[in-house]
Design a protein that fits this description.
InterPro entries: AB_hydrolase_1 (IPR000073), AB_hydrolase_fold (IPR029058), Sec-Metab_Biosynth_Hydrolase (IPR052897)
CATH topology: Rossmann fold
Pfam families: Abhydrolase_6
Strand content: 15-25%
CATH architecture: 3-Layer(aba) Sandwich
Low-confidence stretches: none
GO molecular function, one term: hydrolase activity
Structural class: alpha/beta
Helix content: 25-40%
Protein name: Alpha/beta hydrolase
CATH class: Alpha Beta
Keywords: Hydrolase
Number of strands: 9
CATH superfamily: Alpha/Beta hydrolase fold, catalytic domain
Number of helices: 10
Oligomer: single chain
Order of helices and strands: EHEHEHEHEEHHEHEHEHH
Amino acid sequence: MSQSPTIVLVHGAFADAASWAPVTARLLSEGYTVLVPPVFNRSLSGDSAYIKSFVEQIDGPVLLAGHSYGGAVITVAGVAENVVGLVYVAGYALDEGESLGQLQGGFPDSELAANLVYAPYPVEGGEPGTDVSVKIDAFPQVFAAGVDPEAARVLAVSQRPLSAVAFGEPASVAAWKTKPSWGIVSSADHTINPDVERFGYQRAGVRKVIEIDAPHLVMQTHPAEVADVITAAIAELG
């Protein structure tokens, strides 16, 4: 590849672009071009369309990395012509026609479902929607285990909720069928059953799966290892 790809880091539910900060800092210090756009967490189709449009406005090749729900987003957005690879970080590698709920439901051993809060939000001209977030008191253990306790408290009260419709919306495409991919399993994950990650990556035929003894926010607790997987993927792409 004559031009090193721009690295686009896609955050997941109950988080924002800052969740990637330790990895972003490392990649920037190594001279890579990195962009970390917001994901609005309103619907899988809408979020994926936004990221796809964002990527298509980048001049040159793009490597997409998605954490958690961001994995589902890059699965759909990754069909953009200039995307050259996908990196799943404790993420959902959905198949075409499959929803988050369907994939998660096959491996129900997770602490997340019992620690969610549902709140209505107004929708102009329609029935109220439902936002889903993690209980603030459970957030440090379920979502931010391994993160500095004070930082976890801040993350808990600043989390970005996910619209409930995103759980049941099927992926319209699966970019991993045509784009090379890599995967990180957080083997100490309390948010997504690690077997969800393993199953999705195996089905997607990812080139390499790295298991890290880490919690869900592996980008916060093991930024060097995550950055290494991303840069190794770029090196493999040539």
